[in-house]
Amino acid sequence: MAENPSPSLQALDAAAIGGRHFRYYDFVMAAFVTVLLLSNVLGAGKRAIVDLPAIGPWPFGAGILFFPVSYIIGDVLTEVYGFARARRCIWAGFGATLFMAAMSYVVVALPPAPGWEGQSAYESVFGQVPRIVFASITAFWVGEFANSFVMARMKLWTNGKYLWTRTIGSTIVGQGFDSLIFYPLAFYGAPDWPADQILMVMASQFILKTGWEAALTPVTYAVVGALKRREGVDVFDRGTDFTPFRTKV
After folding, report:
1. Helix H segments across 39-82?
2. Is the residue at 247 inside a domain?
3. Whose CA is closest to 178, among 189, 186, 167, 188?
4. Residue 209: which of 150, 159, 147, 157 has the closest Cα?
5. pTM
6. What is the pLDDT of residues 205-242, one digit of tens each?
7. What is the CATH number of the domain that holds 87?
8. Which domain holds residue 108?
9. C-alpha distances out from residue 57 to 48, 54, 65, 193, Å
10. 243 is a domain residue
11. Does the residue 242 lie in any domain?
């Protein structure tokens, strides 16, 4: 896929933009956190099934509809605004997920009023096992930072060209870390999750998530192009401090 950078864009090192105000950054951050929370609330607890031609019934976690989108938005954040601002969003998402998990535990633990019959539904949807919550949050943190780091470094290596190589390449790395961390942490040793099934599900989810994001590459191109034109800059992470343990931009 060819690159056609606009001559009106100003290529800047991340350090040179300092405290510059971006018109759409806050909206992209809000979208990132929203999709992340939806993937944990609406998608994580449901197993769905689709009948594929020549394959037959194929079970999958409904979260696959949401979670890869957070990686796409993460790619957009790093590509348009640089690693430091993407890092800030990852920490915002991490904090929001922790808060949601804590409040879910509190709400489920509250004694239900006499006559109210929704407790079992609340427990089914929001009563997540602490081990799974820990695995999910850890995998998200590592995977998103790996994704953003690879995205930023590949942009320097390619001199801003061939966007598709870094969106797909960073996703392979990020989703790889995510899957390798989440499934063993969440299910290894569980009596109903034998090791071969963990490996099968881990490989399946990795392939599906990566393929889903690759299929949305034209959407990523459109969003990145529109945001760069409206913000008027193309940010390169030369001289960036890539430590994940800070939120300052």
Report:
1. 67-81
2. no
3. 186
4. 147
5. 0.89
6. 888 889 988 999 999 999 999 999 999 989 999 999 99
7. 1.10.1760
8. 10-236
9. 10, 10, 18, 20
10. no
11. no
Structure-token match 């430091």, residue found: 84
Query: What is the per-residue pLDDT across 35-76, written as a single tens digit (0 to 9) for each?
Result: 988 877 776 556 677 787 887 887 666 677 777 788 899 999
Q: Which two three-digit tokens encode residue 165?
A: 């190589």
Element (H, E) at 235: strand 233-236
Angle, helices 83-109/25-38, rounded to nearest 10 degrees: 40
Please give the span between the terminal C-alpha atoms of the chain, in angstroms, as a whole number: 31
Residue of 181, 185, 178 whose CA lies nearest to 206? 178
Task: Tell me the residue length of the chain.
Answer: 249
Q: Look at residues 220, 230, 225, 244 and name the one whose alpha carbon lies nearest to residue 166.
A: 220
Q: What is the sign of the dihedral through the CA atoms of 125, 57, 216 and 198?
A: positive
Nearest Cα to Cα of residue 62 among 77, 82, 76, 42: 42
Place of tokens 């997920």: 97
Domain presence at residue 90: yes
**Do residues 156 and 236 touch, judged by C-beta distance below 8 A?**
yes
Q: What is the CA radius of gyration of the chain?
A: 20
DSSP-assigned states of every residue in 170-193: HHHHHHHHHHHHHHHHHHTT-TT-
Q: How many domains does the chain have?
A: 1
